[in-house]
Amino acid sequence: MSEADRRFMRLALGLAARGLGNVWPNPAVGCVIVKEGRIVGRGWTQPGGRPHAEVRALAQAGAAAQGATVYVTLEPCAHHGKTPPCAEALIAAKVARVVTALQDPDPRVKGAGHAKLRAAGIAVSEGVLEAQARAAQAGFLTRITKARPWLALKLATSFDGRIATASGESQWITGPQARAHVHALRAQFDAVMVGGGTARADDPLLTVRRFQPKRAPVRVVASKALDLPRNVLAGSLEQAPLWLLHGPDAPAEARAFWRSAGAELHEISVSDQQLDLESALQALGTLGLTRVFCEGGGAFGAALLRASLVDELIGYTAGLALGAEGRPGLGALGLARLGDAARFELVESRAIGGDLYHRWRRQTHA
């Protein structure tokens, strides 16, 4: 691949990132159209998933798209859905070459887009900045290949891994800059999720504040018995959708209350007297979610780790220690040996205000 191919694909990846949190169930795709070394069109998937990136870029390029090179972060779609295939739009525009980062694993596409372009006489180059695109598309890829969304578990703790003092005081362990960063991250995910324990303890709002997302993340609360506080969550349905995951035995009165408040209820099977978390995540995938930002609590986060459902750890560590009497960031994991613990690889770390931000991805190799 040429340096120009890498440079324009980096631009397309930057455009794709603008769609994160806004475009589910579709992938966040970026597209750049180049003719004679000059960008004549660019686009990214719009809120709700349409129009697609290629359609936006072609509209901007107009007649200049003929004979141009198109850089797109995911294989152009080849199937007829709510809109015609992007591969056909590129063919109709008479582009000369299409450069992609990833093949689309969706069975409706999976190579068919590339094949359609080649059959029309368009040169196709694949795999340009594939690793970067795969990381950026982790949510969509996980939903297609594992039938569940990508899950990031966030923990804000003291230096010694505590989330509160022994008395339960926790506001605020981290500083205002770190808390603002959390809201910026929320806006990049399709949903913000907590367990019933956190909801009962905090009655959290779970919305994006300090920023104005184009599409408010869905708020997801997992509570087997729907025994949730009815103040903040029930009184804020106009701010963001609320999905409640509950067990088969959740009381009829609680179901009726939350439905009347405007929440969306989803019954999940139970395993070992708790919600089956794998079934819960698969239900969210079926509903179209690709990226979920989980903010605890400790028991819920530990249960997700035990079930091997955490793809990414996001940590905010403050420069204070609370000691053994403080409340731990995670509940029991039941580990007998160090080798039984899931390993994560450091992706990035940096100071945010007076705190340390660090992000880790689950290792996929031995």
UniProtKB/TrEMBL annotation:
Residues 3-124 form the CMP/dCMP-type deaminase domain. One of its GO terms (molecular function) is 5-amino-6-(5-phosphoribosylamino)uracil reductase activity. Binds 1 zinc ion. The keyword Cell inner membrane does not apply. InterPro entries: APOBEC/CMP_deaminase_Zn-bd (IPR016192), CMP_dCMP_dom (IPR002125), Cytidine_deaminase-like (IPR016193), DHFR-like_dom_sf (IPR024072), Eubact_RibD (IPR004794), RibDG_C (IPR002734), Riboflavin_Biosynth_HTPR (IPR050765). Keywords: Hydrolase, Metal-binding, Multifunctional enzyme, NADP, Oxidoreductase, Riboflavin biosynthesis, Zinc. It holds the Pfam family dCMP_cyt_deam_1. It catalyses: 5-amino-6-(5-phospho-D-ribitylamino)uracil + NADP(+) = 5-amino-6-(5-phospho-D-ribosylamino)uracil + NADPH + H(+); 2,5-diamino-6-hydroxy-4-(5-phosphoribosylamino)-pyrimidine + H2O + H(+) = 5-amino-6-(5-phospho-D-ribosylamino)uracil + NH4(+). Gene3D superfamilies: Cytidine Deaminase, domain 2, Dihydrofolate Reductase, subunit A. CDD domains: Riboflavin_deaminase-reductase (cd01284). It comes from the Bacteria. The keyword Oxidoreductase applies. NCBIfam families: eubact_ribD. In the C-terminal section; belongs to the HTP reductase family. Converts 2,5-diamino-6-(ribosylamino)-4(3h)-pyrimidinone 5'-phosphate into 5-amino-6-(ribosylamino)-2,4(1h,3h)-pyrimidinedione 5'-phosphate. This is Riboflavin biosynthesis protein RibD. It comes from Thioclava arctica.
